[in-house]
Amino acid sequence: MALSRRQFVGAAAGTAALAATGTATAQEEPDYGGWFDDVSNYDGTVDKRGQDTVTITVGAQGNNGAFAFDPPAVMVSPGTEVVWEWNGEGGGHNVVSDGDGPLDSGSPVSEAGTTYSHTFESEGMFKYVCVPHETLGMKGAVVVRPGGSGDGGSGGQQQQGPPENPDYGGWFDDVSNYNGTTVDRTDADSVEISVGAQGNNGAFAFDPPAVRVTPGTEVTWTWTGEGGGHNVVSDGDGPLESGDPVSESGTTYSHTFEEMGVYKYVCTPHESLGMKGAVVVGGPLDGSGGGSGGESGQEGGGIELSGPQWLLSGSVLLAFFSPLLFAVAMRRRQNGRPPQMGGGGELQRATGPEPVEEAAETEPAVELGHDEYDPKGTAALVAFYFVLIGLLWVFMYFVEFLGRVSIIG
Amino acid sequence: MVFVDSYPKTSKLVRSEFIVAFAALGIGALFGIIQSLHRTGVFRGFISSADYYTILTGHGVLLALVFTTFFIAGLFTWAVANSLERELPHRIAWSAFWIMLTGTVLAAVSIIGGLVGAPSILGHDLKADVLFTFYAPMKAHPAFYIGAALIIVGSWVAGLAYFKALWEWRSENPGERIPLQTFMVVTTMLMWYVSTIGVAVEVVAFLIPWSLGLIQNIDPLLTRTLFWYFGHPVVYFWLMPAYLVWYTVLPKLAGGRLFSDPLARVVFVAFLLLSTPVGFHHQYTDPGIPSGYKFIAMTNTMFLLLPSLLTAFTVVASVEHGARQRGAKGYLSWLRNLPWGKPAFAGCMLAGLMFAAGGFSGMINAGMNINYLIHNTIWVPGHFHLTVGTAFALTAMAISYWLVPQITGKKLQLRGLASLQPYVWFVGMAVMSNAMHRAGLAGIPRRTAEPTYDEFAFEGVAGTVGEMRLQIAIGGFLLFVGAAMFLIVMADTLLARRGGTLSVNGHIPEPLSGANHSPRILDNYKLWTAIALLLIVIAYGPPLASMVADGLFAPGSPPIPV
Amino acid sequence: MQVHRFEKVWLGAALLLIVGFIATIAYGSVGVGVGMVDDSGGQISAEAVQNGNTGTQFDDPGVVQTGEDKYTVYVVARQFQFVPGSGDNPVQVPAGANVTFRVTSADVVHGFSVVETNINTMVIPGQVSEVSARFNEPGTYGLICHEYCGAAHHTMGGSVEVVPPEEYDMQQENIDQSADDAQAQEEADQ
C-alpha cells in the first residue's frame, strides 16, 4: 500500500520515524490502531463536541485526488447528527462502516449536494470508508465521546509544566537526529524510545531524542541491538541510570516520571558522538498549532520530496550525467596520447580542426555481380521461417485461442 | 572525405539531434529499470505505486516519442545530405529542431511535475499521468498536450527541409532517379504527414481546448479513434528508418551490395499506402465500432505484412552477398563469415533477428478475434519491446557506432564495450520479452504497478508466474546495462579529440540491381500519396462519420484530472 | 523490373501465409462462431451512469435472468472497482447458460477481462460493451481492469463465479431466505 508524499514528509522527516503523530486536541488523541496510516489528509482528530450537527465533506482533496473525507477524524458528543455532504468531485463515493457498523449510504454516487446523515447516540469509535476508494486512503472515523469543548475548544487549555518546545540550551546541537521539535506523547500512558537508532554517523541515536510526556507516564527504552553497547544515564543529577552499556537487542529499561521538568540524558560511551536525549514532563498541550513534527508544510503550491523521491531524482540526474562524467574521467587519463596520423608527414596546422581521414575502402575477396549470385542461404533461412511461423500460428490459434471460452456474440 | 568535413553545418544539426535523443534514451532507460523492478515486486523502494504511472508515462513519451523522433530526424538529415550530396536548408532544419525541443521540454516538465507534488501552474495541477496514449477523459496539464503537439509540428517542419533539398536537387539534376536514401526519407515523411493528421486533430481541436476548459465535453471514442489513426503508422515511422539502415548501410557493413534497389522502393511505397488504414486493429475490443470496419482493418494489416516479409528476404540476401564476397560457401555456414565483432554490423543483425520474432507476435495481435487472447495483457509490451525496443532502438544504437565518428571526426572509443553492447541488449531483451509473452498468455495485464489481485491468483501457462516475473526483472536489468554501455561509449566518443584515421568510411557501393531497373512510376510520390489518402478515406471515412453523426462532442465526457 | 526467381517464390509464399491467416480468422469467426465486440451495446450517458439515474438496469447493476437459460449481467466499471465483481461482491452465473455481459463506465476508460478466457473488452464511457459467452465448466475466474484508469488502477480487479446450475438456483433461494429471516428477527425485536 502506498503512503502519500504528505504522509512521508509529515512523519518526522530525516529520522527513523515513528507512526504519524497528529496534532493533539483538547482531549487525548484516540488510538486508531493505524487506521489513518494511509490517509494523506489525516491531521489529528477535530473536536466538534457540543455542536448539534457536524458536517463532513465527501470528495475533499487528498490521497492523490479528490479521494478524502474532510475532516477525516472528528470527535462528537452523543446525540450529534453527522451530515456527510458530497462536493461532486472524485467520482462516485459512499460512506460505509468498516466491518459491522451503522453507516451505509448505499451505492457510490457523485452528484454534488448529495447528503447522508446519521445521529450517533452511543459512545464509541465508528470507522468508515468510501468503498471504491478505500485502497487509495479514503477513510474516516467518528469518535463519540461525552465531555466537551464547552470551555472554549482550542486555545483555552492552560499549559502546565515546561513550554511546548523548551530551550534545551544547546543540548541538541550535536545530535544529528534531533529535528528541532519535541515529540508530543502526552496522550499515552507508556512511551517507547529506541536505543541505537540510526543517527550521528551510525546507530548512535535515541529515537525520538526529545519527547514530552505527562506526569505518571512510564517511559521504556528499548535496545535495537545496533551500534554496540549503550546505556541511559541522566546528565548531571537525575533519576535515569540503566547501568553499564549493553548491546543486546530487546534489552529494556524503564522509568516512570512523576515530577514535571526537563530530564536530559546520555549514552555514556557515545555521548561525544551525539547520543543524547531529553524527556520533558509536563501537562498536555492544547490543539491549535499543536505538536511536534506532524505538520507537513506546504499544500500543493510547493515542491515536496520525500526520502525515496530524493533517491529517484538523484538517480535521474546521476544517470543523465554519468556517461559524461565517466567520459571526462577517461579523457583525463588519455590526455597524454595524441591521435595517430594516417599516411606520412607531420604537417602542423596553424588553425582549423584536426585533420581526419576515413578508413580505406576494402576490396572484396571475391567479386560477385548481379548475374553470378543466387541467395541460396537466404532461401534456406526464409523457408525455415515460413514453416516456423506456420506451425506457431496453428498452435496459437487452434490450441491456445480456441481452447478457451470465447465471445459468442 | 569524412562527412563532417564535407557538410559541417549539417553535421552540427545531426549531432544536436542525436544528443537530445541519447539524453531521452538515458532517462527513459532509468525509468525502465525502475518499472521492471517495481511491477515484478523485486524492489519497490524507488517510488510509490501511484507514482509508477508517472514513471510509465515518462518512459513511453521519452523513448517512443522523443528518442525516436529526434534520432530519426538526425538519421534522415544525414541520409538526405549524404545521398543528395548537399547541405540541408539551414534555417528550416534548425527551426524544426527548436520547435521539437520546446515541445519536449514542455511535455517532460508536465510529466515530472507528477513526481514532485504536482504544483499548480496556471490553474491546473502540473501532472500528466496519462501514459503515452493519453486517452480521454483522463486529463493532463494543458502543457503536456501543447508539448506533444509541438513535437509533431516540429517534425513536419523537419520534413519540409528534406523536401526543399530534394526540389533543389531535382532542378539541378532533371530526369535523374531519386537516390535511394532520399527516396526512403521522402516516402517515410509523406506517410508521417498523412498519419499525423489524426493525432493533430485530436490534440489541437479537442484535447488542448478541453484541458484548458474551453470545451466542456468530448467523445472518448472519437478521440481514441483519432489517436489510433496515428498510433499504428507511427510504428512504421520508427520502422522505416531502421529499414533504411538495413537496406542501404548493412549490406556495406557485411562487405556486400544491396540485393535490389527496385524492391526496396516497392516496399517503401507499400508502407506509404497501407500504414494508416489499419488503425482499428488497435481497437478490436472497442465497443461502438461495428465489426465490418475491424475486418477491413484486419485484411489491410495482414497485407501490410508483405513489405516486411520482402524486406527480410532482400536484406538477408544482401548480407549473404557480403559473406559470399568474403569467400564463404555452403547453405548456412556463410553466417560465420561476417564481422560479428563490429558493433554496427552485429547490432543491425541482432535487431533484424529479434524483429522476426516480434513480427510473429504482431501477427497474433493483428488477428482480429485471436487478438482477444492477449489484448492489453503484458504480451503487448513483450511484442513492442521486440519491435520498437529492438528493431528500432538497437538499430539506432548500432548505426550510431558507424555514423557518430563520421559526423564528429572522432574515432569510436571503448571499442570493446561497444562490441559487447548489442549482445547484452539482445540477451536482455530475449529474457525479458519471452517472459512477457508467456505472462500475457496467463492473463497478467500491462500498464499495472502491482499485478496481484485480492480476488484471485494467476496461473502460469508455461512456467510459474514467479519465475516469469523474475525473468522480466533480470531482462530489464540487462537492458539497462546495455543502454548504459551505449551511452558511455557515445559520451566518450563525443568528448574525444578529433583527428587521426577513423575505422569506418561512408562509401556505399552500388546495388546489385540498381535504380535504373526500377519503374519510374515508383518515384511518383504524388501519385502514391493520393492513393494513400484515398485508402484512408475508405477505411476511416464511414466510421468517423458515424461517430460524429450524433454530435462532435457526444456522447460526451467531462475531464477527469489524473 | 527484375525480381530474382527466389524472391518471386518467397513473394508467393508470403502471400500464401497472409491469405492463410485471413482464412483462419474467417473460419474462427464464421465456422466456430467466435464473436467480436461491436456497437450492439448501444450508447449511454456516462454522467447518468455516474449518478445512477440512467433509467436502465445500470442503476442497479447485477445479474438478471432474461430467459430459460439466458442471463444478463449489468456491470458498472468505475475508479476503482467493478460493480458487481470486485471485493466480496463477485459476479455469479450458472454454468452452461448463455451469459451476456453489458458493461459501461461511470468515469474513464477501463478494461474488462475475464482471466483465462477470451472475454476481453474495453469499457468506454458513453458506450456499452455487450459480450456473450457460455461457461461450460464451473469455477472461479478472475476479473481484471486492464486499461490504465488512474492512481489505483492496479487494485481494480474482481472475480466471476461460475456455479453448477443446480446450486445456482439454490443460492438465489438461500439469499432470499436469509433476508426474510433477518427481517423477521427485526420485527420480532421491536
Automatic annotation (TrEMBL), chain C:
InterPro entries hit by this protein: Ba3_CcO_II_C, CcO_II-like_C, Copper_CuA, Cupredoxin, NosZ/Cyto_c_oxidase_sub2
Region (Disordered): 168-190
EC number(s) given by UniProt: 1.9.3.1
Subcellular location: Cell envelope
Gene3D superfamilies membership: Cupredoxins - blue copper proteins (2.60.40.420)
Ranges for domain Cytochrome oxidase subunit II copper A binding: 68-174
Organism annotation: Haloarcula marismortui (strain ATCC 43049 / DSM 3752 / JCM 8966 / VKM B-1809) (Halobacterium marismortui)
Gene Ontology cellular-component terms listed: membrane
UniProt-recorded Gene Ontology molecular function terms: copper ion binding; cytochrome-c oxidase activity; oxidoreductase activity
Gene behind this protein: coxB2
Annotated protein name in UniProt: Cytochrome C oxidase subunit II
Source domain of life: Archaea
Record PROSITE patterns: COX2 (PS00078), COX2_CUA (PS50857)
Xref: Pfam families: COX2
Record bears the keyword Thylakoid: no
Keywords per UniProt: Copper, Metal-binding, Oxidoreductase
CDD domains in the cross-refs: ba3_CcO_II_C (cd13913)
